[in-house]
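[Discussion] Sanity-checking designs against the backbone

I'm trying to build intuition for which residues belong where. Below is a structure token string of 258 positions. I'd appreciate it if someone posts a full sequence so I can compare it with mine line by line.
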């Protein structure tokens, strides 16, 4: 959570920033922590910003068509997505993360105006979803979450969302199983002492979890729009990765409709 926040802050300080997340940069200055420990630097920081931009753009696109929608921004961490997307007042926006994270978020970031709720709960518990009215098209965006869940918890989350709301979209990133096997090679994961569990190799498998659930996009990390903004060493590494079967599928960003 601190690593990705720092990545967006670093990106915002670049002259050709991808995300321009000045709120992230402001939050970083308010945390007394040596962010160099996250091992975020040039390429990984811009990579985080590029991934966030794809999910921001997909969220905006859903809200353009559904201006009275509900947004479930799950595992929000310290991400200022609601400020970046800046939804109209007609949108109901819910940011959710574990209670400790929500307490920190309340101290660090200004609460946006409008129909906004910040909820401290686990995505695996039932109660928070029962409290969200099921009256509107709903987009659930969860970045940097799926890989931390056990597959059965991820499946149950997707089933509960798709069963509850009349229609909507799911927007999230995932690792492939090779990415899960090689997780200790990712500095931010290694340094956080985190354990990644769930890898998705076939995005179509998820379509079988709810009638009408359809994969609209499965963008591989090596094919994301905006990669030309990476520093040169990052662009070269990605060109090489894109040619290696298995490794080129190590990460994806997924968009489903239901
Ligand atoms: C890698 S961080 C990503 C945070 C944010 N989405 C971002 O991109 O900066 C993973 C986030 O998932 C949250 N998380 C992990 N397990 C969770 C759970 N069961 N319920 C809710 N949040 C969870 C963590 O607290 C953390 O904020």
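Best answer:
Here's mine. Compare freely.
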């Amino acid at each position: 959570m601190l690593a990705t926040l720092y990545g967006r802050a670093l990106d915002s300080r670049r002259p050709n920033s991808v995300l321009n997340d000045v709120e992230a940069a402001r939050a970083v200055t308010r945390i007394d922590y040596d962010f160099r420990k996250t091992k975020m630097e040039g390429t990984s920081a811009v990579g985080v910003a590029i991934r966030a931009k794809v999910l921001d753009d997909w969220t905006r696109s859903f809200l353009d068509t559904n201006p009275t929608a509900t947004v479930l921004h799950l595992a929000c961490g310290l991400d200022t997505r609601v400020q970046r997307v800046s939804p109209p007042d007609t949108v109901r926006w819910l940011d959710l993360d574990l209670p400790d994270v929500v307490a920190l978020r309340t101290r660090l970031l200004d609460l946006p105006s409008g129909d906004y709720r910040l909820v401290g709960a686990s995505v695996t518990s039932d109660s928070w979803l029962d409290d969200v009215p099921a009256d509107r098209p709903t987009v659930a965006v969860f970045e940097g979450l799926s890989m931390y869940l056990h597959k059965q918890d991820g499946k149950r989350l997707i089933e509960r969302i798709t069963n509850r709301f009349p229609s909507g979209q799911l927007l999230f990133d995932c690792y492939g199983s090779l990415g899960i096997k090689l997780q200790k090679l990712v500095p931010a994961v290694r340094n956080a002492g985190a354990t990644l569990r769930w890898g998705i190799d076939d995005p179509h498998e998820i379509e079988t979890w709810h009638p009408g659930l359809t994969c609209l996009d499965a963008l591989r990390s090596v094919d994301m729009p905006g990669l030309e903004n990476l520093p040169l060493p990052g662009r070269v590494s990605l060109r090489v990765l894109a040619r290696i079967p298995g490794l080129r599928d190590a990460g994806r960003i997924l968009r489903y409709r239901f």
